[in-house]
Amino acid sequence: MGKAGRFACIFVPMALTLASALLLIVVGLGGTNKNTTTLSNLYFMRANTSEISANATTLLNKLPNDTSHIPGAENLSSDLPSLPSLEANGTKLQEFYSLYLWNYCAGNGSMNGNDTIATAANTTDHVNYCSPRANHFWFDLKTVFGLNDMGADVLFGADLNKALGTYQTASGWLSTLFYLSICATFAEIICGFGAIFSRIGSVVTTIVSAISSVFILGFATLATGIYITLMGAFNTALKPYNVSASLGGSMFTVLWVAVVLSWISGFFWMISSCCCSGRSSHPRNQGFQKTTSVERTPYTYEQVGGHPMNNINITAAPMGHQPTGTAYEPFRQSRV
Questions:
Q1: CA nearest 160: which of 93, 221, 243?
Q2: What CA–CA distance (Å, rounded) separates 197 from 199?
Q3: For residue range 178-218, what is the model confidence (pLDDT) as tens digits?
Q4: Long-range contact list for 71-78, CB < 8 A, 24+ apart?
Q5: Is the pTM of this model over 0.85?
Q6: Of 252, 206, 242, 288, nearest to 99 (Cα)?
Q7: Low-confidence ranges of the chain (pLDDT < 50)
Q8: Both ends of the chain: CA-CA distance in Å?
Q9: Could you tell me the strand order of the sheet in which 45-48 lies?
Q10: Which tens digit of pLDDT belongs to each residue from 13-23?
Q11: What residues are paired with 245 via a beta bridge?
Q12: 3-class secondary structure for 152-218?
């Protein structure tokens, strides 16, 4: 097949690996620029607070009759009336909160569906604020809503608080898996260049690709599980306040396509380690033998290799010398 065929065999998994790495970078860029609609749309989850209605009166009505088992319950009645009204378009809350890998962004405007911040037909949506990026980011709902000292544990319910605690713990693993996925994918690309020259390089690249694929799958699975759980908790606990949550279709599409491409590239790396050796199917000296062959002249002697007579030295007798002795000469005539 030769080196050209070997290069063609490596091109497919290399292209798939590069595409997977590019998609992972896109996932990491989500929410990094609030002025870019494409990056703003790449969120994991969005909380829609455009129709929220929560003031001191409605919050007090949500309290149970018996609050003796609640820590600090004696201060709730005095604290809640001082709570600013959580109304959309007010100074307290934005109309939506989009959660990304490193931060969250918030903005105002109507939303058309589950996965749109701004489109050409709807220019009212815009992002007003993006929080600073952090390695172990998690969306602290209590702090964002200003309810950390206002009895949020009671108002949001046990399910949402439990989901937020799990989300906070898992967010650290999420960023770690992302870093491991990126590093392993780029290591796979580097090893892939060595695979062009030998099947040993393909074996090494296949191993690195398997590790990379496991990391990417783990990252995608953990992200999906976290935000599905968090979305369910939001929709359950905050439904009385007209708050809803939805997953970001664009983000999860990009993420899972990266997973699929990574596993397919690993399959082709494995194929390249078994096939496409890079050696030519024609021996190097075959053409040389054909060009150096000499046409034999008719009626010429050709030594036959391996014949027993090849080792016998035959020396011609000098001219004019007649052999003597009594050797048998069948055709010799005697003199008269």
A1: 243
A2: 7
A3: 999 999 999 999 998 888 777 788 889 999 999 999 999 99
A4: 72/151, 73/151, 73/154, 76/150, 76/151, 76/154
A5: no
A6: 252
A7: 56, 72, 78-85, 87-91, 111-123, 286-293, 336
A8: 82
A9: 126-130, 104-108, 96-99, 45-48, 244-247
A10: 999 999 999 99
A11: 47
A12: HHHHHCHHHHHHHHHHHHHHHHHHHHHHHHHHHHHHHHHHHHHCCCCHHHHHHHHHHHHHHHHHHHH
Q: What would the two tokens of residue 2 be?
A: 């030769």
Compute how many other C-beta atoms are within 10 angstroms of the C-beta atom of residue 336.
3
Q: At what angle do helices 158-194 and 199-237 cross, to 10 degrees?
A: 160
Half-sphere exposure of 218 (CA within 13 A, CB side): 18
Structure tokens at 66: 């018996």
- Whether the Cβ atoms of residue 47 and residue 108 lie closer than 8 Å to each other: no
Dihedral sign from CA coordinates of 78, 82, 85, 91:
negative
Q: CA dist 186 to 150, 191, 229, 331, 335, Å? A: 47, 9, 31, 93, 104
Task: Tell me which residue has tokens 């690195």.
Answer: 208
Residue 222: closest CA among 169, 265, 158: 169
